[in-house]
Amino acid sequence: MALAAAPSATNSRIVAAWREASPASAALAAEAATLLPSGIAHDARHVEPYGPYIAHARGAHKWDVDGRRYIDYFGGHGALILGHSHPAITAAVAEALPEGTQFGANHPREIAWAKAIQRLVPAAERIRFTASGTEATLLAVRLARAFTGQPVLLRLVGHFHGWHDQMASGYTSHFDGTPTPGVLEAVASASPLLPPGDLDAVEAVLRKRRDIAALIYEPTGSSFGQVPLDGAYARGLRDLTRKYGVLLIFDEVITGFRVARGGAAEAFGVTPDLFTFAKVVAGGLPGAAVAGRREILDLLDFTAMDAAGREKIGHPGTFNANPVSAAAGIACLAVLAETDANAVASARAATLRAGLNEMLAAEGLPWAVYGTYSGFHLFTNPRHRPEVSPRDFNAMRIPVAELKGADPALVNRMRLALFLNGVDSNPRLGGFTSAAHSEADIAETVAAYRAAIRLLREEGEVL
Ligand SMILES: Cc1ncc(COP(=O)(O)O)c(C=O)c1O
């Protein structure tokens, strides 16, 4: 997600140390700046003055072009539950690659991939592959509107579902639902935002309006639980959406095949009408899917729509079910089905959260680390709440604006300090663990966060 541009203070010792440590990355960043807006390909990769350029990665680690090693918590934007270059995935890709990368035709792996999904998510009665999570949520919304005949999509403030027009406001800005630049007012107003965690607010809208097609949300809360939501809320939404005849879409692009083998639906014991999957589902390669109730996915089916006398929803997509992505996805889902990888990744994150909180307490810093499953988030206490304690922190008691309100300049400086200490966090200073993170990685990470905080303190950044 986008970080506001942070000032790259020329007198910062952290910035100076980072520049000195990363001459090869600096040279590439200078070249990239002449070609790519901000020198990058994804807003979440924006770091001032620049981030490391990665040369290769394995397991929990990645190495940059200056030969520096990082313990990686960016986790391929959440795609890498098994870590980098898992041998089963690498072997599957190596086998698939010489057979061809784009057949423009059906192929056996798309069936095996669908079966692998259904094995872990039995409610995926039908599956349509897309190339990205953004495309998956776009298709899910179109299916929901066509199925119900209603125009409006309910979303929750702060929840991210990709970058297409209907989802552009409300995740880092435009929390009132107004359109971001380039988006039509009519499109933005057809996907209004509600406060997360408030079932009464949802019911008030459903009671009043008859034009709602669906509600979509991230089941464990926005940005993998940075603003947490629980199973009780999911069950409440399921009851309400059923009662008012509205579809429930679980955006499991992050949670799918991560929080449990069967994702948040399994973890919470709730079956939505539609799922969107990406990231883990394709084993670290580009790929995604919409899945769910057969009668809804039948809107894509030539025969079913002929029989129903209805117009089918068109859905092309050059890279839908790409055979190499399919191979990676099948291999990844098989490992998840047959090992305790999900549980290991979650256990590592729990150890990391506890270790970081102990460290924060020892440093006397009123920040806190929280999260669920294989996620961790650093709360930097932007409003300086005196009652915040790392040993007893409940994110549910903190308003959304504060949980998501870290000072961008502080975050940027902390990321550089973490790079210097061999850790790549995500842009929220937290991240994803994988089954490849070891106990030793976790201990090293706690030490790296401590060292980074001390660097910030030396610069007078941290109270
Ligand atoms: C919950 C959620 N939905 C959708 C998306 C969009 O997926 P993609 O980046 O593959 O388009 C993301 C990406 O981070 C996501 O986290």
Brief descriptors of the model:
463 residues, alpha/beta, Aspartate Aminotransferase, domain 1, Aspartate Aminotransferase, domain 2, 2 domains, globular, disordered N terminus, binds pyridoxal-5'-phosphate
Task: Kindly describe this structure.
There is one protein chain. With 463 residues, the protein is α/β, with parallel strands linked by helices. The protein folds into two domains: 13-84 and 341-458, Aspartate Aminotransferase, domain 1 (Alpha-Beta Complex); 87-338, Aspartate Aminotransferase, domain 2. It is 40% helix and 13% strand. The chain has 18 helices and 15 strands. Strand 12 (368-370) and strand 13 (375-379) form a beta hairpin. Helix 4 packs antiparallel against helix 14. The chain starts with 12 loop residues before the first helix and ends in a 5-residue tail after the last helix. 49% of the residues are buried. The structure holds pyridoxal-5'-phosphate.
Outline the secondary-structure elements.
Layout: H1 13-21, H2 23-32, E1 54-58, E2 61-64, E3 69-72, H3 75-78, H4 87-96, H5 108-120, E4 126-130, H6 133-148, E5 152-156, H7 185-189, E6 193-194, H8 199-208, E7 212-217, H9 222-225, E8 227-228, H10 231-243, E9 247-251, H11 263-268, E10 274-277, E11 288-292, H12 294-297, H13 302-308, H14 323-338, H15 341-363, E12 368-370, E13 375-379, H16 400-403, H17 408-420, E14 423-424, E15 431-432, H18 439-458
Parallel strand pairs: 3-14, 5-6, 5-7, 7-9, 9-10
Antiparallel strand pairs: 1-2, 2-3, 4-11, 10-11, 12-13, 13-15
Helix pairs in contact: 1-17, 4-14, 5-14, 8-10, 15-18, 17-18
The chain binds pyridoxal-5'-phosphate.
